[in-house]
Amino acid sequence: MALKAIGNGVGGACHMTPRACLHPKSSLSLRMVERKESEKEMGPSPSSSNPQDQFKGLRSGDLEKNARALTRDCNALPKPLSSMDCLTSSDGSAIRVAYQGSPGSFSEDAALKAYPHCVRVPCEHFEVALKAVELWHVDRAVLPIENTSVGSIHRNYDLLLSHRLHIIGEVQIKVDLCLLALPGAKKEDIQRVFSHLQAFQQCEKSISDLKAIRINFEDTASAAQLIAERGMRDAGAIASARAGELYGLKILQNKLHDEDANITRFLVLSREPILPKTYGPFKTSIVFTLEEGAGMLFKALAVFALRNINILKIESRPLRTSPLRLVDDLNHGTAMYFEYLFYVDFEASMAETRAQNALGHLQEFSKFLRVLGCYPVDTLL
Ligand SMILES: O=C(O)C(=O)Cc1ccccc1
């Protein structure tokens, strides 16, 4: 039975200002984020529930005055970012980036690659990290979305849809998995191996000869941390070399991952979109469903092919709100087809006319279509 060692939230109360004041060792928990949500510590709210209210019963002279006031209010609203490299938040302090896991995790590496001088805010779960952005506790979140050997992280695709955040960037992280243990421990002493499921899946072959019990953790770094804190001489962690340094463990074996090029792609999420540009390699991520179901997917892909737009990725996820399509056929009775959400990354910027025309065309036969983000391609490894 896989024992889930839970990343420890901060015990007791944590009074967070709109910008969470978390000790680096602590991590945001859902409880902490939701408590603040209940206290409605949100970001700037519109001056009235219905912006039109301010124009009711106004004389023309008031309209000009009000228009100036509205302009002033709009100037106070957060503006679209010019690029993901906006290195300080709107109040000039260091960007705060939420990630799932503990210090030393690969998600923290992704936060550091995206914003080298950021304040990292560890969160117990991916959901907490995204909520922290929505509730203005942090400025960004990083979210692992796929790996070169394990493929897509499906639950994180679902998370993208259940939150109103924008993808403003991506970072690709080389995941070099190491087997870590207490100083003095030998490989033959290892009876138990702790790590994140993603990591176990990336080194299936390498650890098959270990004959050790595998125990799933919320992240690779918390696995290393527990071994160090409890002095567990018979346990090993599969994590990064940086986690080993951080928690005082030594490397029994590195390059544990089965494939040489073991890269995880992380998305950078923000409350505001970035202004798409026509220069430089840009990609756009969208999600849609089709009026006529999956059988018409070729039509959806054709809107890009007709405009010489490369499709970089397609992922399908169940359409939980209406999972089946029943089709009555006189000869064969009623057929049941699964319904899907389609996630597509294509190689163009929404600033380009061809991309705008492609989406306008796709919209003609989509039941639902949302642009998740338009952002620069990460070319640095
Ligand atoms: O557990 C971590 O370090 C994470 O950030 C999740 C993860 C684990 C393995 C590969 C990529 C991301």
Automatic annotation (TrEMBL):
This is arogenate dehydratase. Residues 96-271 form the Prephenate dehydratase domain. It comes from the Eukaryota. GO terms for biological process: L-phenylalanine biosynthetic process. Residues 33-42 have a biased composition (Basic and acidic residues). The keyword Transmembrane helix does not apply. GO terms for cellular component: chloroplast stroma. Pfam families: PDT (PF00800).
